[in-house]
Write a structure and sequence with these properties.
heterodimer; A: Immunoglobulin-like; 2 domains; two-stranded antiparallel sheet; B: Rna Polymerase Sigma Factor, Chain: A; Arc Repressor Mutant, subunit A; 9 helices; 0% strand
Chain lengths: 211, 181
C-alpha cells in the first residue's frame, strides 16, 4: 500500500479545493468520491416492525428523572447553608470534629488508592434483584469479593472499589446466577468463549492522574 | 433534528412507546447502510440494527445527551457489528473473497462498468479492509460524519481516526486502480 499525496488527503477532508489538484490527483479524487457515492446506496429492507414488536414486550424504559438522577442533581445543585453557632458551641464542635478526624485516621477502612491505582465506581439498574456482585479480570472472576449495595431498595445498585490503573474486563452477577454485562460500560470485548458473549470493559485512571 | 430527537426521547421516557417508531424511521436507513458496509451481509446487518434499536430502547434513560442520539445509536450499532464480526463462523466466505466480476480492459474501464458491478467492486475492496479502517471510511465518506462525531461514535481520538481514514483511502484507491487497470 503506497501513501497517497497529502494534497489529495486534504481535498478529501474538505480542507483543499479539489479543483486545485493536478490532473492525476483529480482523477484519484473522483474515483474515491465515486466509490463513496456507490456505498451510499441504502439497502431496501426494514426491521422496523420487528423492532416495534420486540420492544412491545419490554417494560417501558425508566424515565431519566429516576431516583439516582434526582439524587445526583440534588448533590449537584448549589445551596446556601447558614450556621449560627455560639462561640462555646463552635469550640466544642471543632474539638468534636478534630476527635472524629483523628478517629477516622485510625479506623478508616475505606481503601485509599495508591499512585498506580484508581477508584472504580459500579452502578447497575436491577429492579427486584436480591444481590448484585461484580466479578472481573481484577479478582480472577471470583464471586463473593465485591458486592454492590441498594440501601434504598430503588433497584439501583452501586459500589466503589480500588483497582490497579488500566483496563479491566468485568460482569455483574445478579442474584448469584445471572451474569450480565454492564449496559453503561460503553466498551465491550468478546469474552473469548466463542458464544458471542461480551464482557464489559473498564478503564481505571491512576489516582495520581486525577485532577 | 437534534432538538427533535430530544423531544422524541422525552416522549418515549414519559411512556409513549410508539414514539420510538419515529426514531426508527429517522435512523434505520443510515444504520442499515452502516451495518451492511461493516458486515458485508444485509441479513447480519438487519440483525445488528434490530438488536441495537432494542438495546437503545431498553437503555434510553441512560442516553446522557438525547440531542446526540444519532452518535449514540451509531455507537451501539458499531459495537453490535464488532460483536457480529468477532463471532462470525470461520466457514463463512468473507465478501472480500467472493469472485470478482469480469472487467473491461478499456482505459475508461471505470466509467463503462455497470453500476452494479461498480458497487460489487467497491464493496469487495471495502470488505478487504481491517474493521477499524472500514468503519472509519464508512463513517466519514458514506455517513458523512465530521471527525468530532466519529470520535463520539467510536471512542477513538481524532488523530487516530484521521490516520485510519487516510490508510483506508490508500488501500481502497490501490484496490480500485488494480481492478480497472
Amino acid at each position: 500500500m503506497s501513501p497517497i499525496d497529502p494534497r489529495l488527503q486534504e481535498a478529501l477532508d474538505a480542507e483543499r479545493d479539489p479543483g486545485e489538484l493536478p490532473a492525476d490527483l483529480r482523477e484519484a479524487y473522483a474515483r474515491l468520491m465515486s466509490a463513496a457515492e456507490l456505498l451510499q446506496t441504502t439497502p431496501r429492507l426494514s426491521v422496523a416492525t420487528r423492532i416495534m414488536t420486540e420492544i412491545g414486550r419490554l417494560p417501558a424504559p425508566v424515565h431519566s428523572d429516576g431516583p439516582m438522577r434526582r439524587i445526583i442533581r440534588w448533590f449537584g445543585r448549589p445551596r446556601a447553608v447558614t450556621l449560627r453557632l455560639r462561640p462555646a458551641w463552635t469550640l466544642a464542635l471543632a474539638v468534636g470534629l478534630g476527635a472524629m478526624l483523628l478517629l477516622s485516621f485510625q479506623q478508616d477502612s475505606t481503601p485509599t488508592p495508591g499512585a498506580s491505582e484508581g477508584i472504580a465506581n459500579f452502578i447497575g439498574h436491577f429492579p427486584g434483584a436480591t444481590s448484585v456482585e461484580v466479578v472481573g479480570s481484577f479478582n480472577n472472576w471470583s464471586r463473593g469479593a465485591i458486592h454492590l449495595n441498594d440501601d434504598d431498595h430503588d433497584g439501583i445498585w452501586h459500589g466503589a472499589v480500588v483497582l490497579p490503573a488500566g483496563a479491566h474486563e468485568y460482569m455483574f452477577v445478579v442474584d448469584g446466577e445471572r451474569w450480565v454485562p454492564d449496559p453503561l460500560a460503553g466498551r465491550y470485548v468478546d469474552d473469548g468463549f466463542g458464544a458471542g458473549q461480551e464482557n464489559s470493559l473498564l478503564f481505571v485512571r491512576p489516582a495520581a492522574a486525577q485532577p | 433534528m437534534v432538538n427533535e430527537d430530544a423531544d422524541v426521547v422525552a416522549r418515549v421516557l414519559a411512556g409513549d412507546g410508539e414514539a420510538f417508531g419515529i426514531l426508527i424511521r429517522r435512523y434505520e436507513p443510515g444504520l442499515l447502510r452502516f451495518a451492511t458496509r461493516m458486515l458485508g451481509n444485509p441479513d447480519a446487518a438487519a440483525d445488528a440494527v434490530a438488536e441495537s434499536f432494542v438495546r437503545a430502547y431498553r437503555h434510553l434513560a441512560q442516553c446522557r445527551d438525547p440531542s446526540r442520539l444519532r452518535s449514540w445509536l451509531y455507537r451501539i450499532t458499531g459495537n453490535r457489528c464488532r460483536s457480529h464480526l468477532a463471532r462470525r463462523h470461520t466457514n463463512d466466505i468473507p465478501l472480500s473473497e467472493a469472485p470478482a466480476p469480469a472487467l473491461a480492459e478499456a482505459s475508461d474501464a471505470w466509467e463503462i462498468l455497470e453500476r452494479s458491478e461498480q458497487v460489487a467492486l467497491v464493496e469487495r475492496a471495502l470488505a478487504a479492509l481491517p474493521a477499524e479502517k472500514r468503519e472509519a471510511f464508512v463513517l466519514k465518506h458514506v455517513e458523512g460524519m465530521s471527525y468530532e462525531e466519529m470520535a463520539a461514535v467510536t471512542g477513538a481520538r481524532i488523530p487516530t481516526l484521521k490516520m485510519r481514514v487516510h490508510r483506508a483511502r490508500e488501500a481502497l484507491l490501490e484496490a480500485l486502480e488494480e481492478v480497472v487497470r
